[in-house]
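Structure (tokenized):
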């Protein structure tokens, strides 16, 4: 089995604000990170160039990450203050993204599901996605 890893590090500037409104800690407040993502792909056989996947073909992934996590405010669909977040977006002072839930675990799952749909084929499959806030905190989702 061959595996490759594509990393979009914290230095890429995917600056995202979010909160976990259900938390009993300061995580219930809006806070942000320059998120990083690590996507692992695998294949039992390499292609004609001896690659698992052409890293140059991951433009859709980069665009997806930017759309959801670059200078955005990500809010859970059940956030009790969702209407206030929508008002901020309507005023043009926030780029609002509404997901099922927030946090590194959910962000990793969201990106995994995109990669699974976009890149899995008869030869290649996504194994996992890691979302990291910084060097000490990350979450992993996938076929582990």
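Design, position by position:
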């Amino acid at each position: 089995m061959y595996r490759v890893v594509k990393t979009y590090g914290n230095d890429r500037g995917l600056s995202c604000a979010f909160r976990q409104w259900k938390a009993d800690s300061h995580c219930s407040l809006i806070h942000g990170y320059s998120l990083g993502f690590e996507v692992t792909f695998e294949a039992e056989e390499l292609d004609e160039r001896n690659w698992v996947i052409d890293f140059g073909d991951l433009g859709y992934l980069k665009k997806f990450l930017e759309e959801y996590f670059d200078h955005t405010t990500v809010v859970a669909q059940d956030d009790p203050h969702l209407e206030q977040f929508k008002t901020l977006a309507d005023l043009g002072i926030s780029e609002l993204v509404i997901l099922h839930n927030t946090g590194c675990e959910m962000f990793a799952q969201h990106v995994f599901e995109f990669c699974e749909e976009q890149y899995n084929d008869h030869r290649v499959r996504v194994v996992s996605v890691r979302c990291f806030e910084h060097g000490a905190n990350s979450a992993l989702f996938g076929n582990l």
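Reviewer-requested clarification: The chain has a mean pLDDT of 95. DSSP finds three helices and seven strands in the chain.
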